[in-house]
Amino acid sequence: MNKVYEIYEILLNHFGPQGWWPGDTPLEVMVGAVLTQNTNWTNVSKAIDNLKREDLLSFEKLHELPVEELAVKIKPAGYFNLKAKRLKNLLDFIAREHDGSLEEMFGMDMYTLREEILTVKGIGPETADSILLYAGNKPVFVVDAYTHRIFARHNIIGEDEGYYEIQEYFGLSLPEDVQLFNEYHALIVRLGKEFCKKSKPLCAQCPLGKFDGFTYQPLELQ
DNA sequence: CACCAGGCAAGTA
DNA sequence: TACTTGCATGGT
Prior knowledge:
By secondary structure, the protein is an all-alpha fold. The protein has helices spanning 3-15, 26-35, 41-53, 59-64, 67-73, 80-98, 102-106, 110-118, 125-135, 145-153, 163-173, 178-195, 209-212. The longest helix has 19 residues, at 80-98.
């Protein structure tokens, strides 16, 4: 009946728990959420290691660090000038509106906080939701490019569905559970990386083949 | 060599 | 409103 939940069970059974989000503190998770925009996690990890090695991964240290110096530290994550500004915008916002306290910030109502975070330049829907879910333990479903691609290819959602439409669909299909949302998004990314790449889908070996026998055909081959 | 990775904002028509 | 482009490193 509920395809969304059935697929979750298949993925969890196939891959096992993914242990997201890698990061020891909410601050580290939040930093990672910005750095991983359009970027492979292995590169983000190098950038975060740089910050850790120099003991810069605290709110005060990061907030005080000039944006030009921050850019140098996060270079391996790519888009480093852009991301340094975005991180700075976010840190300035938290210092200004929440006295530099993530704990205080995450004590807010989830929907109000989401609206606030989205006003920060450089924080879009996916980054905001990743921060809320993985750093703040709030029950928001994170939609990403894989979610869109996988579920559109299985004709569960439309190819032209937007972020909020997809998010609403998942919200209506699943119990509001932080751990479930956490695990499901991580499983979708795992599935996407291994079996549902843009131009190289591996449908024959995909665990969702057991779900509906679906095999994706690129449009030009149909 | 080409292509892509856990996006977003600004510019164009 | 609906595309397109800049941002940039590193893995496959």
